[in-house]
Amino acid sequence: xxxxxxxxxxxxxxxxxxxxxxxxxxxxxxxxxxxxxxxxxxxxxxxxxxxxxxxxxxxxxxxxxxxxxxxxxxxxxxxxxxxxxxxxxxxxxxxxxxxxxxxxxxxxxxxxxxxxxxxxxxxxxxxxxxxxxxxxxxxxxxxxxxxxxxxxxxxx
Length: 156
Fold this sequence. Notes:
Rossmann fold, 22% strand, Flavoprotein-like_sf, single chain, alpha/beta, 156 residues, globular
């Protein structure tokens, strides 16, 4: 088992949540890195994400190292109630279908959004487990939510 995650910025909400999960499970992590970095400014980020969403732009991305495990914990923000387009392209083009995915996400109100359905469409034969959604502004206080999620999934 390993963790793959996308965060638009170093120490962003999804990365903070990933560290909490990785710390509980002592797992290796693998960052999905867009070829063209996202802006740090929130307003500029929203503008770019909206443009990608509205114009079906799917940016290229790479990862730190090849994912070889068939059980994956996948972390991402939710943008416009969906997986970011950069994550969708990465999953479709670069990831061999895992046997099991444990999804987690951050958003400011979308929860898991449509991400579970999107994952099922991309990987129809993959078992998608119960996901964890944490409000980005509350990610610093998510330790108990992470522990509860991992216990519920029998991972700890």
